Amino acid sequence: MIDPSYPDVATASPDSKVETVVSKIISSISTVPGRITGAYCDDGKNQDTRTGFEGYVTPGFPINYRIHSLFLENTEEVRLKFQGSGHGNLRTCVSRDQGSIGTNCIEVKDLEEAVLKIPSPCAGYPYQCPPAYLTVTVTRTLTRCAEDDCRYPDQVRFLMRHEGLRCFRSPDFTDSSTVVASGNSNLYLYVAFQTLSLYVVSKIIGTF
Length: 208
What we know:
By secondary structure, the protein is mainly β. It has two helices and nine strands. Helix 1 (18-29) packs antiparallel against helix 2 (196-207). It is globular, with a radius of gyration of 18 Å. The two termini are 31 Å apart.
């Protein structure tokens, strides 16, 4: 199903040069954030406790995520814990407005852990609780990224764990903008990393 928040986008290019077409495609794809979701509920619980993933951020190319309002409703506080990897420093910010970085930010330095809190995420919104938008940006790189998952040596790796998101009580608790990865009971996240854009671009270049 299609998320109505991100309809199909048609781009027009003045020419068929690879550089022009690729630039427009990257610009369109980069506006679509990855998705962070809650897990399936444990017995008698309404919120998940510790679910997470790792990510790699390239300097100059922030990664964006979106938490749907369904996972924020009826929660007291959402905690997003970021663990550094020694590759450099990150700045993470949360906003309730799409396209805005926001002012609720933390710095994640070197190997340190920092917590980004969203207290009472639906308080003050009497009609509809808005999604939360998360931006992760590199502020300093040590050019140490050497793991198999590193695309470039200047990338900065992080581990993010979230607590307090509303969880799934049954398979009926889904909508068109929710994707949950099943399998391991300790991890029910689907994160559409923006490295997908690089894959799409490589396919397009191969057609020229």
